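Risk register update: the risk of archive-format incompatibility is retired. Evidence:
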Amino acid sequence: MAKITLENLAHSYLPNPSAEDDFALKELNHDWADGEAYALLGSSGCGKSTLLNIISGLLIPSQGRVLFDGQDMTHAPTAERNIAQVFQFPVVYDTMTVRENLAFPLKNRRMPADEIARRVQKVGAMIGMEAELGRKARGLTADAKQKISLGRGMVREDVNALLFDEPLTVIDPHMKWELRTQLKKLHHDFGHTMIYVTHDQTEALTFADKVVVMYDGRVVQIGTPQELFERPAHTFVGYFIGSPGMNLFDAELAGTAATVDGARVELGRAYAARGRRVQLGVRPEFVRIGTGDAGIPARVRRVEDVGRHKIVRLEVAGREVSAIAGEGTRIPADANRITFDPEGINVYADDWRVAPEGEAA
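Archived output:
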């Protein structure tokens, strides 16, 4: 295991990048703590796989350094980094049995036969293929082959890091849950540094100790699932995390209040927001629906009953706003206003969160 440091790291696929937009991965400085489980989360094309491939040594960055426990590994080949990587699509040896595929990394390191057998048997059980260990990989389904790839990544106990590049794409939904659980158990039992790339927020939030959210080649927030939910550092984080995502309202600030669509919204604290565009971010859980004259004018468009709660879709100044109401909550037929719980309001200037005065950013 190793502490992985990314120092002034950036990458462009262009030969002579001259502007920030030329970089697929914008400049990044970060320490990946030894033994923690991270998820790289973002939409397709945001730079997740580029960053993972730089860490693994499959790609040399345009600038900056990659250090393992303080040792510069920027130009070191993958084999010298002592990492295991599992890719989006399964890579297995069809002519080998499942057992031989799983044992392959251990045999390359000339481990004792009894230790190889022990590890292969244990990992075979973890991925649900104990009964198929003697079967040839040829002819297995795509999800079975991916389970072999996952198992081959997990079979070694001496790696500096385990890297997963959207490894559950071809796995059926039930098995996804089981394998995520097994990966969490593996991390708990052996304490490997794990980095897991995904565009699925459920995978990221259930797997990781810390989630690294990427947008347009930039890391916009690193935090625990709770931090990402309660205090999104960027409007993209608020939109991408949560179902439905965070609502955004253009606003004007004045003291401890804001004006949204002509209505006064109490914030409870003052904000020194400087930017071309100021917005309030409010998750659906903190939107209240009511009647009368207090609040922001709104019109209920539809109510979606999803079992444990209701998702209310409203129209506010020509755009859709979502609110979450309890399962037994009655939505008034004449509902015409929304208000917000002050503790659930975040303020943004040009998409970046502004801390209230007196609070550290």
